[in-house]
Amino acid sequence: MSSAKQTVLEPPPPSQRKVSLYAVHEKAYPRFLNKGTFRRLKWLVMAVLLGIFWIMPWVRWNRGLGAPDQAILLDLPGRRAYFFAIEIWPQEVYYLTGLLIIAALSLFFISALLGRVWCGFTCFQTVWTDLYVWIEQKFEGDRNRRMQLDKAPWTSGKILRKAGKHACWIVISLLSGWGMVLYFDNAPSVTRDLLTGQASINVYGFMALFSVFPYLLAGFAREQVCIYMCPYSRFQSAMFDEHSLIVSYEGWRGEPRGKLGGAVQGREAAQIFEGRGHCVDCKLCVQVCPTGIDIRNGSQLACIGCALCVDACDSVMDRLGLPRGLISYDSSFNQMARSRGDTSVKTRLWRPRTFIYLGMICLVGAVMVYSLSTRKTFDANVLHERSPVYVELSGNRIRNGYTLKILNMVRQEGHFRLSLEGVAGATMSVIGIDGDGRSTIDLTTGADEVGTYRLFVTAPKGSVTTKKADLTMVLTNLDTGRIIRHQNMFAGPGQE
Amino acid sequence: MATNAEKDPVTGQYTTGHEWDGIKELNTPLPRWWMGVFYATIIWAIGYWVLYPSWPTLNGYWAGTLGWHSRSQVVQDIEQAKSAKAVYLAKIQEASLEDIVKDKDLLNFALAGGRSVFNENCAACHGVGGVGAYGFPSLADDQWLWGGTLDDVRTTITYGIRNSNPNSRQSEMPQWGGGDPLSDEELNNLAEYVLSLSKSSSDQAAAQKGLPIFAERCSPCHGEAGEGSQAVGAPALAAGIWLYKGKNQKAEIISQVKNPKGGVMPSWTDRGLDEATIKTLAVYVHSLGGGK
Hints:
The complex is a heterodimer of chains A (496) and B (292).
Chain A: E1 7-8, H1 37-55, E2 72-75, E3 80-83, E4 86-88, H2 94-114, H3 117-122, H4 124-140, H5 143-151, H6 156-182, H7 187-196, H8 201-221, H9 223-229, H10 232-235, E5 246-249, H11 251-254, H12 269-272, H13 284-288, H14 308-320, E6 327-330, H15 332-339, H16 352-373, E7 378-384, E8 391-393, E9 397-408, E10 414-421, E11 427-430, E12 440-445, E13 449-460, E14 468-477, E15 483-491
Antiparallel strand pairs in A: 2-3, 3-4, 5-6, 7-9, 8-9, 9-13, 10-12, 10-14, 11-13, 14-15
Helix pairs in contact in A: 2-16, 4-6, 4-8, 6-8
Chain B: E1 6-7, E2 15-20, E3 23-26, H1 32-51, E4 56-57, E5 60-61, H2 70-94, H3 97-102, H4 104-121, H5 123-126, H6 150-159, H7 184-197, H8 204-217, H9 219-222, H10 249-258, H11 275-287
Antiparallel strand pairs in B: 2-3, 4-5
Helix pairs in contact in B: 2-11, 4-11, 6-11, 7-8, 7-10
Pfam families (chain A): Fer4_18, Fer4_5, FixG_C
Organism (chain A): Telmatospirillum siberiense
Protein name (chain A): Cytochrome c oxidase accessory protein CcoG
C-alpha cells in the first residue's frame, strides 16, 4: 500500500455539501472537577445507590420454617419471588408489569419536571461510569495527561498505569457481578460457595456475565451507551415542555462570547464585560462533560443532564466575580422572559402534563396496592383430558377425566372442598381418595405447594344432550371461606 | 494490489482503491484483537483435527486420538438412563402390585413408565389413553372382558388372548348360524331381546319372543340377565357398551351371532417385555379409569 498513488479528493463546495450520516467516534476525556453542588450530589447518590445494591441482599426477613429468609430474593429454580412480606408466584408476573409501568411513568414525570435527572444521577450506566472515570483519572491523571498518555509510546510507566486501572476496574466489575448474583440465591451461602470454589458453574457463569457488562459498558462504551444504545435518550425530550427545568446555557447572558483580553487586572467585572457576553469561552463546560458535548449549542440528544457543566461554569463565574448560573437548571420559558429583562417569572411546576403523569402513577399504584392486599392465597387450574374426551360407562353414564391443580400459596397446609355445578346428577371421584360417586370431595394441599389430582366426573347420559356441556367446579377454601369458580366443560356423545 | 487509493474528504480515511460503478470503499482493516481471535480459532481447530474425528481417508476416516464417537456417546447416555431406571425397576420387580399402588414414588414411576410403554405397544389397537376402537375394547370404561383387577390386567398382558401361548386366555363363541341355524325371524327376535337388556330395544313384542332363544343358547356364557362372564371373556350385554359398536347395533348383534368374531391379543412376555415392565403397564392401564 505504501507504493499506492494517493490523491486527495477535493471536498464539494459548502452549498452542495450534504449532512453526513457518518460520525467518527472521538473518545471523550472528561475532566474531573471534584467540587461544586452537583458533583457532591452525584457522590451522595452514588454512595446511596451502590450501598442499596450491595447491602440489600443481606437484609433478612423471617418467613417461618423451611422458607428462605432473604428479604429480596428471586428464586428462579423454586419459581418464587420474595419481596419482604410479599411472595409472588410465576403466574402473578403482572405485578412486575405494574412495577414497570410505575417506573416508566415516574421517568416521564421526573423528565417533565427536571429533564434527564434519571440519566444524569441515578442510571446505573452513569453511576458505574462515574466510578470508573474516577478510577481512571486516579491512575492516569486528568484530561490532558490522559490524552497525552494515550498518544505516548508504550513505556513501562504507561503499562503500569494502564494495568493498575484495569485491575481496579476488574475488581469492581467482579464485585458488581457478585452483587447481582446475591439477588438470585441466599447471599451468605452463595458468597461462601463462591469463595471456596463450591458454587455451581451456573453461579460462576452468571457472575462472570454480570461482571463483563460493567467492565465493557462503564470502562469502554460509556457515553456511546447513552447516545446509541439507550432508547430513553431518544424519547425523553418528548416529555419536555417550555417549563421543564433542564440543564441549559443562558445564551442571552453569555453571548457574544469571547476570550478575556489582556488588560483584566485592576478592572471591575462590570467594566470588563461591558458590551459583551459573560461567556469567556474557557471550554471548561466542554471538558468536564462525560459525553463530550458543548452545552452552549443548546439542548441535545447526547446531554444526560448530569449538571457537571453547571459546577464547572459556576467555578469560573465565581473567579470572575460574576453571578452564578450562566449554565443552570432553567426552563426555556424562563430564559425567554429573562432575555426580555423580566426577572419576575416563577417556575411552573404544576402543569397539565405533570398532573396527568402524577395522576397515572397514583392510579397504577392504587390498583397495585388493591390487588396485592386482596391477592388470592389459592388458585385452581383444571385441564380437561382429551384422550379419551369422554368414556361411556355401563348404566348409560358418561365419565370425563380432568387434571385438577390446586395452588396453595400460603405457608400453611390448605384444606379445600370441591363441588360441581351445571350438570345434573354429576358425581366425582379422585384417584387416591376413597369413595366413588361423591357430590363433594375434601382435598388437602401442603404448605406452599401445588397439589395435582386426577378427577373423574360421572353423569347420566340423559343430563348431557349436547356434545359439550358447561360444568363449573366450585373450590372452597375451608380455612378462609373464599370460593373460586372454575368454568370447564363436560363432553358427551350428544344426541344419538 | 490496487494502486489508486484516495483520501476520502469526509472521513479523512483512505479508500481501498477499487471502484464499482462509482462506489468506493473505505479501507477499514479489521481490528487487531479480532484478527488475534481469528488466528487463535485456527490454531484451536488444528487441535480439534488431531483429537476428534475429522478427515476422511481412502478407506475410512481419521478417528481422533481421543477415540470419541457420537454413537458411543448415545450408548453411554442410554446406559446411564437405564441404570437410573434400574433402581426403580428392581423395586417394582420385588413389590406386589398392591404395594406399588400404595407407594407414592413407585406409583409415579409406574404411571410414567407404563404410559410410555403403553403408547409404544398398546395404543396402536387400544388407542391413546385406552379409548378403544371397533373390536378393541376400551380400557377406560368400567366393563372388562377378562377382569379389571390389577392382577387380571397383569395376566391378560402377560399371556394375551386367543394366541398360541399355552397360558393365554381362550374361549370361542359358537356359530349360531351354522349347524343348528336360527331363522332370520329368530335372529331378529334374539337381537331385539339383547338390545332390551340395556333398555334400547324398540320392539318389545319381538324381544319377548327372543327371550327363550337367549335363555337356551346364550345365557350359559353371557348370563341370564346378560351380565357376562369374565371367566370365559363373554362380554356383558346389559351394560349398553358394545365391543362391536355400530350405527345399526341390531345388525351388529345379528352379524356376531351368525359369524362370531373373537379378538386376539399377543402375549407380551413372548413379545419381549420383562416382568417389571408389564407390572408398570398393568398399573397404568388400571389407572385409566376403569380399574377395579
